User: What shape does this take?
Amino acid sequence: MKSTTWGPVQLSDRRCVQWRVGSVGLWARAFDDEWEIASSYDTSDLNSQDCPEDVAWTRFVTVANDGLFTQPALPDRPVVIRPQSPIVILPCRWGRFYFSVPLWVRFVSQPAGRSATMVEIPSQNLSSTWFGDMATGELCYAIDSRLLRRQPSMDANDAFGRCELEVRNGSRERLQFERISVHVEHMHLFETEDKFWTNQLRVVFKGADQVSQLTFLPHPPSVAGEARIVCQPRVALEKNILKRSFNLIREITGI
Assistant: This one.
């Protein structure tokens, strides 16, 4: 990807660098065998010529002249997406949908070719949400991205990863939902010429009282074009998994 967001951090003559990814401002500076990193979702300080002192800096002790790199990563929890309007998938039917996921900025130290993650910073300040009931639910992130049908957004934005989601109704009832949980912690991140994509995900709905079958395909969708892996899953899988994936309309309205 042709971007100054990701890759080696090049210090200026002031020994300090600042940039923006999504809605977060980032700063990095070096002192002998240390790197200092700061972030803020108030990006007004990015207009300054110098690194601000009123943000919280974190010091990382490494080795002298250590290289610093930034890498994209997917969130560390499932994300919950809302369709633009309630979606109904009839029995034995399926639909293909697209959405975008805010990326994390991973700062990596690479002395002598041995990499170590210093810190990860979300490109957006996401709120937490609980998905499911209190006994079996999960803590997730709520994201603003809407579930889109047919065609993904093709705008270049290196703060987001795009995902293709195939939803199959394998039950004898209508699948009508207003929220869906996507387990991005099990997904790869791929890079094309000007975009990031995850691998494809297939979700099979088995019924209102059943968990769904999730299949993580090993490659990005064909619309992504030629791509290479830039980030491995946070939680690797050896086979398909069963998870609760939908908030059904009737669970909320009682119909």
Q: What stands out?
A: Residues 249-253 form the longest helix (5 residues). Residues 70 and 107 are 5 Å apart (CA to CA). The chain has one helix and 22 strands. The chain has a mean pLDDT of 84.
